[in-house]
Amino acid sequence: MWRVLSRYPRLLWRLQGVAGQALLAHKARSFFVVAAVAMGIAALTVIVASVDGARRKALEIVDFFGPDAVLVLGGDIENRPVGQRLNTLSWSDARAIARSLPGAYAVLPMRSVRSVTLRYGNKNHEVPTVVGATENYAATWNWPLSEGRDLSADDIAHGAKVALIGDAPAKALFGDASPIGRTVMVKNLPVQIVGRLSYRGFTGGGSDVSVDDRLIMPISTLTQRFNLDRHYFRGLRVRFHDPDLITVHMENLRSLLRHEHKLGPTVPDDFTIMSASEILKFLTAFTGGLVAFLGVTAGVAILVGGFVLANLMFLGVSERRVEIGLRKAVGATSGAILIQFLSEAVYLTLAGAILGVGLGVGLGESLSRLGMLELRLSPKIFVLSLAAALAIALAFGLRPARKAAGLDPIEALRGGE
Amino acid sequence: MTGQASSGESEPLIRLTDVTRSYVMGGVTNTVLAGVTLDVAAGEFAAIMGPSGSGKSTLLHILGLLDRPSSGSYRLRGRETGELSDDALSHLRNQAIGFVFQSFYLIPYATALDNVLLPGLYSDAPRAALVRRAGELLDKVGLTSQARHKPSQLSGGQQQRVALARSLINDPDLILADEPTGQLDSATSREIMELLAAINRDAGKTVIVVTHDPDTAAYARRQILVTDGRVARS
């Protein structure tokens, strides 16, 4: 008995060689199975990478936004009633919040100008937004500076012609050189760069504009030099002492603003209050559709790969009847035949998995370059793909392998004549 | 083959006792072997002859442990084979029997050397010893320079010689050849039968050839005639 048992490792090893040899002998068929499985695994790779990417992006947004802050925007951006004004937030609102909202400790008004061309030397770069900010912009937005200094209270008070530069325009205008101390033409206004924001690398809530593509100037300078409306703000950022009570704070803020805007009980809000979790919801809804689509695609693709494997294996078993009959005649047990054919299936799907991960990474790279997806590649994807490949091999390869193992050698050999 | 089992001295290599084989097809029982009793001693060279449909192929399948008798007893090396499991039969086929077929049945994508090694794969023998032995066997059948050739690059006679080498790789007691010259011209047939005779004479293997060709059967020292599922003359 021990002799029978002791020959299994050697037999198992030898059968791997047999399987490999058979696969190389049937290159075209092997290639089709590998390609079919690779499609499924590629889809799986993209979906796992995009789910991970969305999760990481969500965490970054919470980090960036701050769990203790809310953003108030003019107008109801969710319902957008016809004819509603967007400019509804005024200095008096800001002062009222700072003065009478319990728990709030910082109110930062925001104004912005869209699509402004920056010029340095002979280089041009159009930033989608120039943000008007108050002092300590980088500190309040948890956005570290990679060099230089933050905006100061003095800059705001005097309407200084200074700016913080985002990573994207800094690269476009200065390349690898330091932008600090340089003077950039913002439209026709010479502005000195005093600080550079570190690279964030994600796009803001649902748009494809990178947060890195921006310039930050004192709100006073922006208002004066670009002739902005002096009474209203695009938005207000309000920070609270206790992040755990943020929902209560938001409700209080809403009542206060409705009171300030003298809105009757039946009139809808003319402003929108967003917290980090709300922005996340928005983002999840956006990426969720794509992820669900990819998930279905991956499932179908993997299933197709499995069926291709099963069908080509059945074809192979009937074409190789003589080989199977011969092997059994010269002493292969049914188990040895089963292992040989299952091993062939496993090698094909593992090759498919490796090719698929490569394809998936390539596909993911181009999708994320197009800004359609945020991807995060991790070793987990590789492990998951190998597991999926193994599952395909066992689930779809078992029946053809059992058919091969169950062939009667006499019948099988007769098939060759 | 002395000292095989306790009964080894008195019992021949093969002992069939009243072996029948019948198939049921669509409710009709078709009897192919109707009670075969036959002894073959170790070292014999026998030819099983008979017209087609006589049951000689079925007899060969039973002797080769590829098929089981419907009733009766088959003792190989003094051991009752009817009690053995399928896996035990596989192991016994691997160790005790070498097969040669009419259509050679070489694996098309494997080299001559790998084809000779095939039964060795399923044995306990270490690979180095198998490869050495396969080389010797290819030398013996005169195909050393064709060891790396695929079957498609070999002539029919060469393919059958590869198959002969393959049947010997695990050093079995018994060689079973099913119409080994059925697809060969007469000159090549003679070469193959000379080789089988040499295997019987020099290596002491028991050789049983199934054939309907009297010229092929003439190489054997004993002719067993099968008609209508019975041994008519042995």
UniProtKB/TrEMBL annotation, chain A:
GO molecular function, one term: transmembrane transporter activity
Transmembrane segments: 31-51, 282-315, 336-361, 381-398
Subcellular location, record wording: Cell membrane
Domain ABC3 transporter permease C-terminal: 297-409
Coiled coil: none
Keyword Membrane belongs to the record: yes
Keyword Transmembrane helix: yes
Bilayer disposition of the protein: Multi-pass membrane protein
Sorted UniProt keywords: Cell membrane, Membrane, Transmembrane, Transmembrane helix
Primary residence: membrane
Residue intervals of the MacB-like periplasmic core domain: 30-247
The organism's place on the tree of life at top rank: Bacteria
Similarity-based family: Belongs to the ABC-4 integral membrane protein family.
The name this protein goes by in its record: ABC-type antimicrobial peptide transport system, permease component
Taxon lineage: Bacteria, Pseudomonadati, Thermodesulfobacteriota, Desulfovibrionia, Desulfovibrionales
Automatic annotation (TrEMBL), chain B:
Superkingdom, taxonomy of origin: Bacteria
GO cellular component terms given for this protein: membrane protein complex; plasma membrane
GO molecular function: ATP binding; ATP hydrolysis activity; transmembrane transporter activity
Keywords carried by this UniProt record: ATP-binding, Nucleotide-binding, Transport
Domain ABC transporter: 14-234
Pfam families the UniProt entry points to: ABC_tran (PF00005)
Similarity section: Belongs to the ABC transporter superfamily. Macrolide exporter (TC 3.A.1.122) family.
Protein name (database record): ABC-type antimicrobial peptide transport system, ATPase component
